[in-house]
Specification:
The protein is mostly helical and 103 residues long. 57% of the residues lie in helices and 0% in strands.
């Protein structure tokens, strides 16, 4: 109460401090949140976004190329992109520490 409380109205931010450690969200979790992707779509986006071809991405995920194409079409719609090259640029532009997928 008093002048100190009045000086901080309206509140602009909140800071929470915890003694427990938590790991950073997985890139998949970040992508699912940013673009409302399913976990499978996020896995596809990470591989395509790192520059893997569609066939190599499908193989590394253990899915058919047709299934990958279905995921890609949904990813294009959700991210507002049209080509795989756009997805590579999107991942690059996000600036998050996404490590290229290697297998």
């Amino acid at each position: 109460e008093g002048t100190a409380r009045a000086a901080f109205r309206p509140a602009c931010a909140a800071v929470f401090v915890s003694t427990t450690t938590s790991s950073s969200p997985l890139p998949e979790a970040v992508l699912t949140t940013l673009f409302d992707l399913t976990p499978a779509e996020a896995r596809v986006l990470l591989r395509i976004g790192s520059g893997l071809s569609a066939s190599k991405s499908a193989s590394s995920l253990g899915i058919s190329e047709n299934t990958l194409k279905t995921h890609l079409n949904r990813i294009f719609a959700k991210t507002g992109t049209r080509r795989q090259a756009d997805l590579v640029k999107l991942i690059s532009d996000i600036g998050m520490p996404f490590a290229p997928y290697r297998r």
